[in-house]
Amino acid sequence: MTDSTRGVHPWFGLSYAAYAVQPRVMLQSMPGDWQDRFVALMEEAEAMGYSFPLKGTTYAVNLRHDETGRYIYDRDRDYRHRRAERRPDGVSTPQTRLDSR
Q: What total number of domains does the chain contain?
């Protein structure tokens, strides 16, 4: 897709981000049909030759504060022991503290 007003490009906005990182707790808190569509898209991408991550590699993600650049506590890393909380409109949102620990 070459149109910069459609697809993934505008979703990133003006950032220089190279990755879209989503907390597992958020993905697992979405409705079942949403999760099924997400998994189907990931499998479709893998069938096209992409793998997540590249075979034989892993990614390490650390949360940093935008202003200070310091690493901060990310409670979404402990996905086995909590669920995302729901906003009043019913959408799941992980609650991440921005204070240092």
A: 1
Q: pTM (2 decimals)?
A: 0.64
Dist. CA 32–CA 92, nearest whole Å: 13
Query: Looking at the domain assignment, is residue 11 inside a domain?
Result: no
Residue 25 lies in a domain: yes
DSSP 77-98: G-GGG--PEEPTTS-EE-----
Closest CA to 75 of 31, 38, 26: 26
pLDDT in tens, 10-43: 888 888 888 888 888 889 889 999 999 999 999 9
